[in-house]
TrEMBL record, chains A, B:
One of its GO terms (biological process) is isoprenoid biosynthetic process. PROSITE patterns: POLYPRENYL_SYNTHASE_1. The keyword Magnesium applies. This is Polyprenyl synthetase family protein. It comes from the Bacteria. Gene3D superfamilies: Farnesyl Diphosphate Synthase. GO terms for molecular function: metal ion binding; prenyltransferase activity. It comes from Streptomyces adustus. SUPFAM superfamilies: Terpenoid synthases. Residues 1-29 are annotated as: Disordered. Keywords: Magnesium, Metal-binding, Transferase. The keyword Transferase applies. Belongs to the FPP/GGPP synthase family.
Length: 376, 376
């Protein structure tokens, strides 16, 4: 995994100078600053959503309804709802990547839809495997419709993803499906790692990054290149766009891990100290544990005791706040913020190796900036 | 669905003449009689198994081990075992179908492996959804390794199926994957129907046939054509071979449904009256219920009472035998045996529409005969 960090390489946690401003705001980029990211995200959503809904409508009952609930289009009683639909970074990337080849953004739409289907297949199965009862402020599918439907509908969305691409019947669609399949396998590998890490006392920073690369990096890599592949880009171009997306995914996940501890519940929609409550071995935690020093040692002792505690569910706000403070003191917060900037920089650098219209490059850059500065 | 039955069409249950010999032995076919079916099955198994094992070996731990347990290659402790490996009809069909185009049987191997991977993905997930604790005399994966591994490894095998095909990188592989994806969706549809039927008092013969066509017909259809697709066959040839495989699958399932009630436990490896113990609404049951007449009415009353009985698990051999006798008296056994012959005939007839070497045709015919006369 380490070679995937490129020349910057992962620094040893704790080496960030204390007192250094831990902002994840990337260096200014004039062309990217001029991009309307909200409009770019809206474009991806507007292009992909009708096609996604038409694809899901093909599923036989009750799988169509269960899917519609999962996507937030209807509530548990079957009434239409105004779902927030998420950030829609992946569809925005997929339609943008089509423009790398000079194709219309629409060329990337089947890719955007296929990536969304794979992402949601993995959410359905992961929520069940992890026993997660809530997603986006709503009960998860297995809670509402039962475990069998969560398995079955996940399977159906996964199959549908390949179908949506392969029915294009082109050589490009075959290549795109192959890349999507590789990303899907990485997602599954990442979930296998996530499950196995839960049963371990210690996880290294490298292991955590590898898992996050599989769970988040691989599918963002696919989203960032699939439109280009459908537009006829060669493998070198697709590989380079994947590199952009992979590191963007790692930056995205580092920010997610920061928000999972220090995010504002109003913005994230999650509980305070959400990842600590779930005992997640996220980047700030593993980096703090790997950093050494007295705060790191103390944190290790406390988390080891927490793992055996039968009273963990009743911990107070203050107890979680104390753990978060120790993670910060040991350098885990700083290191993770720096990791987000480092991965963001590698992602941006990857773009330099691909010829593309300057407006497209500015948009990729702006999306990368958005991912790193977001608050939810 | 009815149109898929072709000119023969499904007959109304109960129209078989009482006292008619209920044998599923098909009419003799001299060329097919000369085929060594055991050798044909062994050829498919010998060609496909090493490639299947190599594919599964690619999975990250512990998914490789869990898969090896599922396939019967190791026991729950990880020691190598001599699994019986099943009948291997699908791999035999896949490599045989490559020969339709004049290609070597080896050309069909990636197709055989992909079909086996999809089949086993569905077994892993279905066993969990259905709560089945045993398969092929062994504890199922979710019993041994837990539900999360059953979900995850099923997902991995499904992804691997597409990977094995798509990494061939040919136009034919793209076409084969598209057909496999359609078959996978049918499998999932069939499982959705199976689950929904469990919660219903009555299922019609047509609904049962549609479910069985999805759960068994679609993948046998894919197995019967995928080698030909990889060998460059046109869509018409592939569609016709699919027609053979689809109806062969329905014949296979009708025989399975007979064995599920009247099979010899020594041969099937299942309990006596296995499907009755599971309250399966299989073909003999739904045909008997649809037949009308006094035995049919009595059966309906008894099964309705059984559905509400809290003592069902403690029923004696005699109680199941009485139900089986009623199903037979109502004509369900006869009708199902006739249905197997009818589907077998449609499958054989489909072969006439495809040009192929006579030896290959004889082998397809012999495999169809084998499926219908098997005892396990």
């Amino acid at each position: 995994m380490l070679d995937q960090h490129g020349p910057a390489g992962p620094r040893t946690p704790g080496t960030a100078t204390r007192g250094e401003t831990v902002s994840t705001v990337p260096p200014a980029s004039t062309a990217a600053d001029a991009v309307d990211v909200t409009a770019l995200l809206e474009r991806g959503r507007t292009l992909a959503t009708p096609v996604l809904r038409a694809a899901v409508d093909r599923l036989a009952p009750p799988m169509d309804t269960v899917s519609a609930y999962h996507f937030g289009w209807i509530d548990a009683q079957g009434n239409p709802t105004e779902g927030d639909g998420g950030k829609a970074v992946r569809p925005a990337l997929a339609v943008l990547s089509a423009e790398v080849t000079g194709a219309a953004p629409e060329v990337g739409v089947p890719g955007a839809v296929a990536v969304e289907l794979v992402h949601n297949f993995s959410l359905l199965h992961d929520d069940l495997m992890d026993g997660d009862e809530q997603r986006r402020h709503r009960d998860t599918v297995w809670k509402v419709h039962g475990p069998a439907q969560a398995i079955l509908v996940g399977d159906a969305l996964f199959a549908l993803a390949n179908e949506v691409l392969l029915e294009l019947g082109t050589v490009e669609a075959g290549r795109a499906t192959r890349r999507l399949t590789a990303a899907s396998r990485a997602l599954i590998d990442g979930q296998a790692q996530d499950i196995s890490y839960e049963h371990r006392d210690r996880v290294s920073v490298e292991e955590c990054l590898e898992m996050e690369g599989n769970k988040t990096g691989a599918l963002l890599a696919c989203a960032s290149s699939i439109g280009a592949v459908l537009g006829g880009a060669d493998d070198r171009t697709a590989d380079t766009l994947e590199r952009y997306g992979y590191h963007l995914g790692l930056a995205f996940q580092a920010v997610d891990d920061l928000l999972g501890i220090w995010g504002d519940p109003e913005s994230t929609g999650k509980q305070t100290w959400s990842d600590l409550r779930q005992r997640k071995k996220s980047l700030p935690v593993v980096a703090a544990l790997a950093a050494g020093g007295s705060a790191s040692t103390r944190l290790g002792e406390i988390l080891a005791a927490d793992a055996k505690s039968s009273d963990f569910a009743n911990f107070s706000e203050e107890e979680f706040a104390a753990r978060a403070a120790l993670i910060e003191e040991a350098g885990g917060r700083e290191w993770t913020a720096e990791e987000a900037r480092r991965q963001h920089a590698i992602a941006i650098e990857a773009l330099n190796a691909v010829d593309m219209p300057e407006q497209v490059r500015a948009r990729f850059t702006a999306l990368a900036d958005f991912v790193v500065v977001r608050k939810r």
